[in-house]
Input
Amino acid sequence: MSRTNRMTGADAVLRSLEAEGVEVMFGIPGGAILPTYDAIAKGTTVRHVLARHEQGAGHMAEGYARASGRVGVALATSGPGATNLVTPIADAWMDSTPLVCVTGQVRSTLIGTDAFQECDITGITMPIVKHSWLVQDVKEIPAVLKAAFHVARTGRCGPVLVDVPRDVQETELEFSYPDEVDLPGWRPPSRVHPLQLREAARVIALAEKPVLYVGGGTLNGDACDELRELAEAGRLPVITTLMGKGAFPESHELHFGWPGMHGPKWSNLAMNTCDVLVAIGSRFDDRVTGKLSAFAPGATVVHLDIDPAEIGKLREADVPVVGPLKTALAELAKEVAKHRADGIPAPEAWLHRIAEWRQEFPLRYARGDMLKPQTVIERLQALMAGEDVVVTTGVGQHQMWAMQYVVSERPRTFITSGGLGTMGYGIPAAIGAKAARPEATVVCVDGDGCFQMTQQELATAVLEDLPIVVVLINNGYLGMVQQWQDMFFDERRSHVHLTHQVPDYAQLAQAYGAVGLTVESETELDGALEEALASGRTTVVDCRVDQSEQCFPMIPAGAAALDMVEFGDSVEAM
Amino acid sequence: MKHTISVQVEDKPGALARISTMFARRGFNIDSLAVGPTERPGVSCITLRVDCEQHSLEQIEKQIHKLVNVLRVTELPAGEAVERELLLLKVAAPPDKRAELIASAAAFGGRAVDLGPDSVVFELTGTPEELDSFQELARPHGIQELIRTGRIGMSRPSTTRRVSRRLSAIN
Output
């Protein structure tokens, strides 16, 4: 076995990605990453999807990661290529999406000289990555990439960045991919403290009004089956956050909606009047809690998370449980089942109470002559039901309506930008999800404002044979901003009007080689959606909806969760 | 309340920047910071002095601990650690005041390291409190320049309590 493995740094990058089992990477070439793209041209098993903007490439890698549960990979050149990745990196940081970004850097000898397309991308991204590496010696490449993938996907998932100077890509090394990572400082929690678990199980089993407050960590921790075991063992109501949507089947009798700013009243009533709040891979985000000091007053908090720094960050945990959620929830389910078997009763009265609230305070909107955005999503849901569909969204009103009206039954089928709230996330994330799940139909519920931020990726969807369906909730406005201006700024609309007509989205879709359909009334809706879902081609359904529709219920920013405004309420009090 | 945190880090590019960036980003203030090598090759020690509530201290420790290059985070509780700092001070010293200043410095265990026609440079090592006292003593004479290194610290082997409290929430 004296087979020599001599190759360039660029080749080593690819051989490392292959060794990690990477199926697909998303990127755009440029000067400083040319050697790596040359190595791609010479052959690799990793599929490369050419994006039209590095932000698109980054969100595609995120969509891929969220749909597949694997690490997403994005490639870009130095300078502007790298800075265009900053938004997806920040997004992945906020939503704990495992992402490896590989960027080209100017030659080592030019670093620090303000060379053409030089920028300190490791410096720029420092506050928004788990870790980053500027590779200074070609021999480091295999170990650095091994470490990069390991850090991205272990502990709390998140983005990492590997910056490779051009000359390092060109220099030769003897390649061998390490079996082990050498990171003495990286020891994410691997076990769960048994005493803490037992205490948590006791508190949960004895609760009269428990709520499981389930976040995206449950999906990242691959703990959805275990969550279901726990909920069913204890007969515990489950409320999933925007990031946790899909972690628990939403048609299940124990699922009770979504918390926070635009969550239904029944969910927020349950969250805020419970006696034991079990936070599972969730982080007490301000969009969930509203005014923190008034959130779930009096509740005993059990907080389970892989990240010790989340425990007690915003809300003191009475019973902290740090560790992998898969193990923690499985153990918890067993313990809670034992308590139930020992005769501690399930909280049936409480379940009944929340179900009553759901009857009493349903999601409401007024049907009228004009097409309502909620109707579009309700009909879309009706047509998608039972099918293998992944839904992505942009950010804004349409995202909140999607949360309310899309019924997510399986993990990793609802993909959205939660923490950073990145407009334009939907289309590229859908393309990435399609790359991960080619057998599924991928639908992006988008807004017209979001669409115009990343629409160029329709070219990627068409040319890379990654067909997606964009259901455009076109209200001609930056809708959520308009809603805030109307509600909290005396209806002074400031620079929020985009118009229904410009661009003509159907024609624009056609210009990209996609199918473009326009829907202006409810009668046209089902036909267009059916056509889009069945076509197998990238399709944009431009649904021109009522411009004045607002998203309810709503907890005004900074207000207590129970002071929520419902549809039909006067907002004078604001 | 002030706390001293001792952080052992791998001596890798950007290790210090990652810690200071984390402080800036999360809105924590650093009173003083000292970095240097340790007994282990490739491992540096960063001693941070921070002014914060107990709750924030816990957050700081946890957030530092998450950084990939960080090997260990310990708080050095007051009284259970040896803490020292170095001060260099240039003070106006006309000939008639010189003897008095040198005597005061000597009382603190300091010494004059350079003499000019109108000023003296003193070096003094001690607890930060001793340095404060000497500084106040020199102030009326006219301090021309003053630099302090920021404190460094080490747990006392003589204290019976376990000084270096490892972060309990971490496995």
